[in-house]
## 1
Amino acid sequence: MEISSKENIHFFSNNTILPVDRSSFKSESSASKEKQSCCGGIKIFLGALSFVYFAKALSGSYLKSTITQIERRFDIPSSLVGVIDGSFEIGNLLIIILVSYFGAKLHRPRIIGAGCLIMSAGTFLIAMPQFFMGRYRYERFPSTINSTVNISPCLQDKSQTPFSALEKTHAKINAGCEKEAGSSMWIYVLLGNLLRGIGETPIQPLGITYIDDYAIEENAALYIGCVQTVAIIGPIFGFLLGSLCAKLYVDIGFVDLDSLTITHKDAQWVGAWWLGYLIAGAISVLAGIPFWFLPKHLPKPESRKDSSTSSEQSKFITEDNKEQHKSYQEQVKIAEMAKGKPLEFFSLTNLFGNPVYILYLCASIIQFNSLIGMVTYKPKYIEQQYGQTSSKTNFVIGLINIPAVAFGIFSGGLIMKKFRINVLGAAKLSLGSSFFGYLLLLSLFAMGCENSEVAGLTVSYHGTKWTTDYEQALFSDCNSGCQCSKNDWDPICGENGVTYISACLAGCQASSGSGKNTVFFNCSCVGTLESPSRSSSAVVGPCQKGNECPQMFLYFLVVSVITSYTLSVGGTPGYILLLRCIKPHLKSFALGIYTLAIRVLAGIPAPVYFGVAIDTTCLKWGSKRCGGRGACRLYDSSALRYVYLGLTLVLGTVSIFFSVAVLWVLRKRSSPQDETLSANGERGTCGTKSRKDNFVNSDHLIQTTYWPEKETRL
């Protein structure tokens, strides 16, 4: 039903003074009671939903903080960890259609409560392998474990080793082989994360629609903003919890901590990764309890009673014309179906025929690939590049990077509101944010550390850097008389500041002390670099990285925080661009396609191929007890920097080209009149077909600034 502008003016002028309904004369006390009841119910739901958002954001960010811990505990490569990380998105996709379609017709609060229970069950399942795999075993020379037997690290003859010690060693290896099946228990971690994704699915669509249905219209945007604010706090606590658990030993409470021969700075250290999942699972259970006591329906506010249309439609369709409007809609439906062209088909063709939407969708998919891969492996990059511990890395990310992202998202929305930026301006702001963000990221190439000096891997035993064939270079004249294995990883630090893969490969003839206090003497290879004739000593553990590394790490933190803020500023303008460039009746469908594409084409594959790329930079792989490749022990710092940052920048650059194309199409389709109107404070549109088709009420736009992918970007 089309109405001309003159008819609109006449229509509104005739309805300026409306007759007062008798129902409006009901007592003020009953009205205030109903309002308080409505507000009280929705506020209880708001508090419960905010706590759920906090719980799911905490558990999701905690998983990111334990990536390296899981990799070491289960002796798996980064590519497999990427599959585990992407299983959350797979679980979410399995039931998103069912939840979105049937959820609104059922008891929404109870479905959210059931989702919380499923999410907590998945979180508990992730921690379960710790209690069935036995104690964590790391590679260590026998003399550092048992001080009663003094065995020479350099076994020039097997007869030097007491038979009982060899027997015990072989017995332990055989016992490890019998429990080798425990290494496949990473599958339970994958299934647990998959279950987390299934449980998380109903929280967002059903929770937000429940608020939108029963909240006072002018408060809906505020309530959704409160939920999102609490969701931003979740990752902060998630990474801080990861920092705390990474300091604790994996088998804390089950082993004597004084007998440990490794510290939290060692590459073999595994923190109490499982403890955080138990805490996160308990929080998810508590978060789901209130929803089982909330009603299926709340009393609707007075402004929404007896209204089957949205607020935006109700301003143009009065009570006298509602029946006519409904009959018109039915006629349109019948006409379309009679032609054999379902409305869904027209929606799909109309949506994908919009060049701005398609180009922005492509830009978002590629940019999310860049951001998700970068965030997933950022803890690993900091640990390997700058020699930082897992605990410190998680603490820095949680306390510095996440708040910068949150402040950037808020700043983007504030800029949009302050300067009343139109669609073209939103596209420029989003493009500028991405351009300067990735430009800052380019500077991180110059803020790396040199490789640690590891004899046989990054330096030769004679002091020459960058050996060509590191497997052959592990053996030298200084350790030729020792019967050493090249698969061992039991690093020691020599007096000369060089790390040796094991005491045997360092040519050490004697040792004293036990545990962390073990000292090796008469190490023939340690004295090779400075004085070949003099043998030196070494201590347990790798040497620290170069002196320039702490300063480089500070520079990295500063640039990383600025980069996170800059990239986040363009998030809200880009999302508003998406909302304003599609017709109002296609918004829900367009957002659904957008979310589905991001999850399938970015959330699932990005961690996997980033992990595969990172695995190519490994210099020393660990070995499992019964053979086979384990987790990586040492990475090539330079190669890791170029692969990690390079892949992020390449994807970011491609997304910028698509963003430029979006801006070009908008400029081409916009008219000087639109720019003049937007300069006077009115809202611009994506096309110039007719103002009538693209008109959207300003109040509705303010309410639809909710960004469902905000937690994913964090």
Note: The longest strand covers residues 629-635.
## 2
Amino acid sequence: CSLALPSDRQLDERGREAAEAQRLRSARVQEQVRIRMMLRGQAPARPEDLADGIRGGQYSSTLRSSFSSRSQSNGVDPKASLYQPLAKKDFGTLRGSGWSSRSAVDLTPHKRMATISNGGLAKGRAYVAGYAASQAATASPRPSSFHERNFRCRQNLDTLSLRSLRLADRPLPLAEDRYAGSFGTMPAGGGGAFLGLGEHSSRAPSVRSLAESGHHLAEPRAMEMYNGHSTLLGHHAGGFDDIDLPSAVKYLIATDPNLQVLGAAYLQHKCYSDSSAKKQARSLQAMPKLVKLFNSPNQEVQRHATGAMRNLIYDNAENKLALVEENGIYELMRTLREPDDELRKNVTGILWNLSSSDNLKDRLARDTLEQLTDLVLVPLSGLGASGVIQQNPSEAEIFYNSTGFLRNLSSASQQTRQKMRECHGLVDSMIHYVNSSLEVGKSEDKSVENAVCVLRNLSYRLYDEMPPSSLQRLEGHRRNAGGTVTGELVGCFSPQSKKAREHYLNADIVTFTEVSKDPKGMEWLWNPQIVGIYNRLLQRCELNKHTTEAASGALQNITAGDRRWAGVLSRLALEQERILNPVLDRVRTADHHQLRSLTGLIRNLSRHARNKDEMSTKVVSHLIEKLPGSVGDKAPPADVIVNIIAVLNNLVVESPMAARDIVYFDGLRKLFFIKKRRDSSDNEKSSRAAASLLGNMWQYTKLHRDFKMKGYRKEDFLSL
């Protein structure tokens, strides 16, 4: 046999190929070492800086009226007091200072990123994941030279791409936690921001863009998940430097999905906080182009298009309207059916943004409620077949976004409230989620807060807006159309006789038993069981004051007015649920917003209470403590003062013990101070209320001696 040897030409070609391969391997390793050495000198990103980059709504000291929770005060024609615990207006997408990427990367189960003000929700919902470079084929490592180990790379950072870097696998940096009390692994602020190279997008960022961003160069965990864009990466290896808005908008209508991703990603990045860019994008017709990409056959295009839209509509009413006018709601609801959690997070975030515009709420309710309930609320609330809440972190955020959307809608018109009450499965989902969360000790959950606020808003003016057949069932034959007690006789007894009262009491029991059976839908809003749920929230929710405020506001709504059922539920709360003690516990430490709903609830309860003496011994001292007695005292808002005085008046007219306790706990001094203070319209209201109460107190002649000992005369009590 003979040995065949390669020709000289073949040897030359193979030698050149081997040399070229070795050169490329060496270049890759050198580039990686230089980058890592350069990054060792960078300061770590500060959590405060990262948190400042979050967009969206938050509880803040400046409350916005578009996101309110409503409560009724006592009286035949109660007026609404707007409770605005959440100024949640919009969602945006978290920027990377020098670059950005798709919105809504999967959150880790242990960290979330949120800003907080006044103990409220994060002001934003802005997700970042970085652009990840495509991974080059791995090469065998070689020892680095002394020069490489000890000297930094001096190459131009603008032109140095990350495309060929193979980054190690380690966790991405997150901003520090700002919330507590999440449900399961759910970020309590409704999600977080995943910083770093979280996704392989359409192109790699330049090293300069990363160095200037102030973040660590985080090694991506999921880089292999997003490949296939090597061609696009090869053409755009220098960052966003060579792209502008007109070019990005043109990319949206390109046939290449990679270019569509690039265009949408640039819009998301550029429109994070630049209002002029949002306006320019709208003028370039970016809105209809993005809407058409919501249901692209390419999933990455869908994600980037919805992420860009999320930023475009943030705090921009014109862009929100443009989205709706381009049939955007219909396309969003189609997209919501996709089995992709990242996409569903973006869609529900967009809906939450849109719902902050008052002029869009009725239309959103009309076009979204049924589908949102079927696709999100019922399955994720645990109302479905399982009966328990089973949410992964992404699903928890989807549910949180959806309940925030409902919370905004529920503060709109009567028409929208009624549509929400009638939407099959909506109220049931809210009730089931709150009840299940209480059972597993998750009362602090932020979605619980949203759900309770929805229930509070839907119970606003409930007896005036419920179906006539339901109202007639609750009211029975006791009242005529005007709401007053009828003059019919019970047998031979007058309506005011003891026998008549016993008859009415028995009728209450019969109605109570009937109504308590198997509530469905809106029936939950006035069902006796709901009182127990609100009571447990007041007792168990220690940290989230907005949840307890909403619970007391909902109780205030369903006990307001002179309707028969308002009295039934009031007495149920007092006598069966023993709700007075947890309410008074809240009063001791409540801020002004909480005091409005708490004192409004006590006002309703004091009107319907059977035993005024017993109630007086429990509440008078706590309420007197909240009243101002001199110019330097810290005074609650005027409506809180009016509520407190109304409670005292309701008790005084039937209980001498209430009048005695007012004197004992130094209430006279405070009431006379309030009576004399008439320097504003609000103070005028509280002054008149104090004058009325003092006039009623003078009717107890046994207390005149005590009054005189404190230096007060008849004229002081009876003068206006």
Note: Confidence is low (pLDDT under 50) at residues 41-67, 74-238, 479-495.
## 3
Amino acid sequence: AFKAAVLIQRWYRRYVARLEMRRRCTWRIFQSIEYACEQDQIKLHNFFSYLMDHFTPSSSKERDFISRMFISGESFKEAELEKYCDYESLEVPDSYTGPHLSFPLLPDHATALLEAFKQKQQLHARYVLNLLHETRKHLKQLPNITHVSTCYSEEVTVCGDLHGQLDDLFLIFYKNGLPSPSKSYVFNGDFVDRGKQSLEILIVLFTFLLIYPKEVHLNRGNHEDHMVNLRYGFTKEVMQKYKVHGKKILKMIQNVFCWLPLATLIDQKVLIIHGGISDTTDLDMLEKIQRNKFISVLRGKKRKESNRNVEIQEINGESKAEADPAGNEAALSLCPQPRPTQAPSMANKLEFSRWVRQTVQEQIEWCRRLVDISESEDEELTYSSMVSLTDLDGPCWTRQEEWKQILDILWSDPMPQEGCRVNTVRGGGCYFGPDVTGKILEKYNLQFLIRSHECKQEGYEFCHNRKVLTIFSASNYYEIGSNRGAYVKLGPDLIPHFVQYQANKTAHTLTMTQRQGFPVALISRVEESAFRALREKLFAHTSALISAFKAYDKDNTGRITLSNWATAVESVLHLGLPWRMLRPQLVRSTADGMLEYKSWLDDLAMEQRSQEHIQSSLLEVIYRNRSNLETIFRIIDRDHSGLISFEEFHQTWKLFSSHMNIELTDDGINDLVRSIDFNKDGNIDFNEFLEAFRLVKQSQ
């Protein structure tokens, strides 16, 4: 009996270990593909940014288009934005059966919204715009770092990424209770993208924020960025749900996002940020940055940087003319430099700060006229601008330094090694080690950090000797059963208490017999989904893989060793996966340890072949580029209509041609755009855009 028990125990441990190994491999696949996609987004954005920096508009029309291409949220002044998004002009028809909102909001309004969204109802565009308008007004009064105390409530609940998964938010409220004067919440960014109900999550969170402004706190995440939204689905979601007023809603949301606070501090001891920190993170600087200037954190604009340098020179008593005596005389004659008024006494610090601000603003306006750049938004006294004005003796930072501070806290990840290095996996932010964490905690007298930004299998994870806590609240993030969601509760003792959950309707309907084998079936289902995504990735790089395989096949036998196969695949995909361990799921076993790589690639092509019978090489290119093509399409489609107008295409082509040194007349561009417009309706939809790409690759 004893030997039998030992054998059963040994068998069971091996079985559990194999399951855990499969689960970890599946996880690595999902995470590697996700981060590779983020790298593509940043590379694509950098490409467009490069074009903009090296393109000189030849007319005011071209200049306006370029400014709209990436600065859509900044191109409206305060009054213009309110006029453009005028909710009062929208009438709610009698046939509307959804929830109604009136301001100031009451708890009953929030309850009505939750019930309406459970019934798949949609809030009228007038109420959405009104809510966004009121939210923006409230956020503008908040500091960059929100201070929360556990003295006023029994505990503070911190939630991580939700990513448009409304069921997870419902489950959190069901388990933990709705926000109230005794129930405080901190939502740590990434409310939108990937999931299908991002807008509903925003509406619910903004509603509770206005009802309980002292109990509900929102941090900005890296997905609260209109450039990221173009790729990951939120822009598309809004336009599909609000076809008529979607553009106005998106415009307001972009502006609301840039006003979200950057961090939350609980009892001066626990710092909550979305991504992480770096060795240059400075909370004092973060508190004083004018956060609304960074509509998209993905770009640090060079032209804006020059304006910031002018501001620094003026504060230091150095004029633009002194800094650049060989300036443009013609421009100077057209735009005479304003002469500053007599400086007041330093004794009256408030009066002196107003004088400095007015003088600097006049000088900046003069410089903008020289380079023909219009101001993005009227300056106004918000919390952050007041902080910067009352501390004139402090250091002055460049826009690049401020941008890096925000980029690091939104995009960074912890690592087990010491030090701080560039986050090449995501393409933005950095990796920070336990020594960096220790220095920040010691410098600001903190106990630990709470961050999100990374999906964790159990919904949470400690690292850096339990000094960094990652919390992730979107369950089933990659696939049903792939991970749990979690939230953490902190009381006055600041000891974290975790609640895990899985918003999985499939699991709730299983019989008892099915539940007994559920973990195995679930792992198999998630594993199958992961390998399907990985095979798509392999197929999308067929041409590059063939070249890599041939480098090991010196005699052109069409066969390589399995070890060389693993090395070649990693050299092409750069996913950092354990390919030798994954090989049995991707390659059929061979007797002599050799792989016929051409037949293996043919098998991959057969799996991915579509019903349209597109040739494999063409399908490969479309698979590899579809996400980038869709993002490019949305960037060109500046009014988010789902169609590219001839004018939008014309101006974008001028941008590309300047980069590629291709001379093409206006008539030539018009002929090109008409050839892409297959149905001759005067616009280019995405299918026509994709078809034109397919035809070009086919002809090549």
Note: The chain has 29 helices and 18 strands.
